[in-house]
Amino acid sequence: MPLPNVVLGVGGGIAAYKACELLRLFTESGHGVTVVPTASALHFVGEPTWAALSGRPVATEVWERVHEVPHVRLGRHADLVVVAPATADLLAKAAHGLADDLLTNTLLTATCPVVFAPAMHTEMWENAATQENVATLRRRGLYVIEPAVGRLTGADTGKGRLPDPSAIFEYCRSLLARGTAEPDLAGLHVVVSAGGTREPIDPVRFIGNRSSGKQGFALAGTAAARGARVTLVAANTSLADPAGVDVVRVSTTAELRTAVRAAARDADVVVMAAAVADFRPREAAEAKIKKADDNSAPEIRLVQNPHVLRELGHSRSRPGQTVVGFAAETGDAQGTWLEHGRAKLAKYGVDLLIVNEVGVDLTFGADHSAAVVIGADGSEEPVADGPKERLADVIWDRVLKVRTPND
Q: At the topology level of CATH, where does 189-403 sit?
């Protein structure tokens, strides 16, 4: 089965060079890509570069190969149109239906999902005109990713940076995998926690765990691709921010608890995918603990951390809020890993609990995962080992069923 056809529109911004990496990610994964740069974009990256990277002729003019009617054909035959970078000018033209070049004509004829990845200076992004144009596009069912925060042109720093090309690619891949342009999480504010908390022993040591944050980041990225407004509370991860997601960085359990509870006040769904430390040292040493000459070891007294998931499950921040938890389990003399997961569901008061079997080379740090999704209604849905994004989509499908049980 052939992979989808992608139209990559490139706007006239300095971030156009980053679209080369996005193009490479699409082509190396087997997608057929036609690049449609604006005239301004060609001042930043020339036509030969796009042709060499895509392996296809570059579409630049309405008047080229007129017999093929390119301004209609490209949009009709695409499975996805992604514009990166999307300048303020391009967003304005798209919102108002202007069609003065091949790319804007293609946007008007596309019947597939259309994704805009904006890049511009902060003042341009925050301008009322741009915000109104973005709202118009989203209202029409098009996808506009939130720009990243970081270094802009020159010495400027702020919101308006093009998201990492790999994050844009994952966003688009999630859309294509679902095979629909319907943003079924639109209108929902989703809070996801990810990573593993660390509790300091001294300035250089900590108690932690093996969580990489990959599952939480996959949940956040797929939720954004399905139209949700997403807040990701990330604990000690080295992963690139998912496209279109607001990220709050934390380290300790106390910091994560504060950030999640604050974000949950107006959230429709809260998913606790982070591996939260159960214990912390009663006191952290102010200076590095040195080895003793007599080979004795210091005594570190532990106290229990607050149970963030149980707090969320039994004390919802707003009516109708859906709470989803994760339980990383191993079997022991008292029961199997799944039996331990079942016991936690009622104890935590959550709507859904995703139970993973963990251990060496299982779940933590891997790009794939298997799980069982347990519902408060007694249902159990095994999810075979596969990409974490696939498990994420299964979870969001179940969340929607919980929120609309009669559908």
A: Rossmann fold (3.40.50)
